[in-house]
Structure formats: C-alpha cells, structure tokens
Design goal:
Distance between the termini: 24 Å
Order of helices and strands: EHEEEHHHEHEHEHH
Number of helices: 8
Radius of gyration: 18 Å
C-alpha cells in the first residue's frame, strides 16, 4: 500500500490533488502544530492582474502551539462574503462557472467554526469533481505521540503501508534512513502542472485547483493525469 500524508489546506493547488490521486490512502495530518503564513488558511486565485490571496481569518492570539484541528475561524461573516465576491468577480466569465458556483454559494453560507472542517469540505469537493475516489483518514484519530519523521512512519505502520509518497520539498529534512529501517520505501512526487487556458492572459501555475475547474470543467482530472503520465 502506498500512503501520502498532508496538512489540510484551504482550496489547495493541483499538486495537492495529484498526490492524493497517486495514493492508495491519503491521511489528513490534522493534529500537528498550525503554522502561520502557509497554505492552511489561505490560497491564491487567478485575476486579471495575476493572482490574489483568499485568506480565512483565524484566532491565533495566545494559541501559538495549537494544533490544526483546534484552530478556530474568527467569528465574522465578512471574509465569507469577500471570498465569494472575489470568486464570482474573477470567474463569472469562465466556461464552467455555472457548474460550480452553487457549491461556493452554499459553502460560504455555513457558519464555519473550525478551519480544519472548512478545509476538508473544500478538498473533498474538489476531489469529487476531479474524479478522485482515494479514501481519506485523519491522523488525529490515531492519538500518536511521536513527531516529525517518526510520526509519518507510525501512520504508515498503522495503516499497513509499505510505501510513503512524499512531496519533493521534504527531501531536505525527512530522515529516509529511518523509513528504510522500518521497512518503508520513500518515493517522491514528480508533479508537472498541466498548462491550460486560463480566463486571463498569461499562465499562473501555482494557484488553487478551483481555477482549473472553472476553466476546464469535468475534463480537469483527465488533463492532470495525462500531463503527468508522459
């Protein structure tokens, strides 16, 4: 079994879903420390000027060591209105706007309390629309005390995985030798973002996967697979 593990992010980019698609099981790493200024509470969408950030306001004051699944969203509807308006403004003329906007209109009507719940909801929606049926689990259910590389190994062992799929950025800090000593092979994701026609001139590859959905629709999943099978 090949397993991959990643923190739940807000409206993740295509590479996130390529990792999910390449796994027999995907585990949300939801019980590790929340980090500011990463992609757990924000992501980018395409605009005429290039891109813009959509950021979910969260409560971090006095909670530096909180885990991702403990992070509370700041109790105001302002951000939801802003995110929906930004999506409508920048994608209203996209080919598949009408197919997907209903989800976002419903999403931003919900009074989300925890960031993790919001993120998982958006991830599962995008997975479904990309045609991905990889089963998912949550690391928090395992009640592990280990950290860093050992935590990943313990997750693999719990689910009986003999192969761990990692992002290339982890090469610098992950202890591959410890994986090998535990009988687990490490392979690295080799993702090539497919180039597709975006609504505005130029091409921005490192933005939320919803950009591809709005522009390419139901063919998006197939396009990702074909671009990475060459």
């Amino acid at each position: 079994m090949l397993i991959s593990v990643h923190q739940p992010q807000y409206l993740p980019w295509l590479g996130y879903f390529d990792k999910i698609a390449g796994s027999d099981l995907f585990v949300f790493l939801d019980d590790v420390q929340y980090k500011k200024r990463e992609f757990q509470n924000r992501n980018k969408i395409r605009t005429k000027e290039g891109f813009m950030w959509l950021t979910v306001p969260v409560i971090t004051k006095g909670s530096y060591y909180q885990r991702i699944n403990e992070v509370l969203i700041y109790p105001t509807s302002t951000w939801k209105n802003e995110h929906l308006k930004s999506i409508i403004h920048n994608y209203a003329k996209s080919a598949y706007f009408e197919l997907y906007i209903d989800f976002f209109e419903k999403l931003y009507k919900i009074n989300w309390e925890y960031l993790c719940d919001l993120n998982v909801e958006t991830i599962k929606f995008i997975m479904k629309e990309l045609g991905m049926n990889t089963p998912v689990e949550f690391s928090s259910k395992l009640k592990l005390e280990s950290r860093a590389t050992q935590r990943l190994i313990d997750i693999c062992k719990h689910f009986g995985a003999d192969t761990y799929l990692s992002g290339t950025g982890a090469r610098d800090y992950m202890d591959e030798k410890t994986f090998e000593e535990n009988g687990i092979k490490v392979v690295y994701q080799d993702f090539r973002p497919p180039k597709y026609k975006q609504l505005f001139d130029g091409f921005e590859p490192y933005i939320s996967a919803i950009d591809m959905l709005f522009n390419c629709g139901p063919e998006s999943g197939k396009m990702i697979e074909e671009a990475n099978s060459k």
